[in-house]
Amino acid sequence: MSNSYISIYQNELIACVDNAVIEDLNKMGDHTSKAIFPKDHNSKAQLVAKGDGVLAGVAFCEFVLQRHGQGVNLSPVVADGVTFSKGALLFYLEGDTQTILSLERFIVNAVQRMSGIASLTSQVQEQIGHTSCKVLDTRKTTPNFRIAEKWAVAIGGGVNHRMGLYDAIILKDNHIDFCGGLELALTKIKAYVNAMDKRIPVIVETRDLKEVDVCLQNPWISRIILDNMSPKESAMAVANINGNIPTEASGNIDLQNVADYAETGVDYVSMGAITHAAPVIDLSLRAV
């Protein structure tokens, strides 16, 4: 998973990491560390959990060090995707003291955030594990950290929705209303996609069974979203679709009702909360 994610999204990861380092160090670097430690000073630190969770961010931090911490080695104790408990030792950092200290906050922030997302995603997926349904993320992510947050979803057992507006078409309510109706919007979308050199998925948001029926007349659609429907309405829509087009339930889905939606027979449930509302897992980087 880690190597494939880096291979597929290398440019996005580079942008994320480089911008974060610039934000903290600018062109001047870490004045405090440079004032105290010479360039040849080495140290060792350990990352310790102050709460329970599913670890995510080890491979991300290794990528950070490859780009900005060549004098520091990361030695994992717990792997990405593995559950840990309060007090667990997660990994060691060893090498140039200035580099460890200058990247400390970015590394700890990243692992805390990613582990919180992976933990919540895992919890959701466990709630619906008795079904074939999978949890999807959304674009409700932190600016400039989306790629890491979506990586954390994948580590936690979820499935990534589109990464941005560029890799899939999702026809939503405002598109439909601004255009003057679902049928006209689909006609324009089909013409646009047919003219593309490389086809991309077309996913359509529906608000009622009438719009579902319109989608069924367009079997080239990649997925139908059942948006803000109740579990009962979703079950009726799934029955009408009858497996002809993959389905996704979306809107006001949380830990309390996600199993109800999964049991309707949808292929996916999407939850913005697994990224925007995931609590961080408290971690501490300590000198050894």
Structural overview:
- It is a single chain.
- The protein has 288 residues and is α/β, with parallel strands linked by helices.
- It folds into 2 domains: 2-126 and 278-287, Aldehyde Oxidoreductase, domain 3 (Alpha-Beta Complex); 130-276, TIM Barrel (Alpha-Beta Barrel).
- Helix content is 45%, strand content 18%.
- The protein has 12 helices and 12 strands.
- The chain has helices at residues 2-8, 10-25, 31-36, 58-68, 97-127, 146-155, 173-179, 182-194, 209-216, 231-241, 258-262, 273-276; strands at residues 42-49, 53-54, 72-76, 83-84, 89-96, 134-136, 169-171, 202-206, 223-227, 247-250, 268-270, 283-287.
- The protein has a 6-stranded parallel β-sheet.
- α9 (209-216) links the parallel β8 (202-206) and β9.
- α9 (209-216) packs parallel to α10 (231-241).
- The longest helix has 31 residues, at 97-127.
- The chain is elongated.
- It starts with a helix and ends with a strand.
- The model has no long low-confidence stretch (mean pLDDT 97).
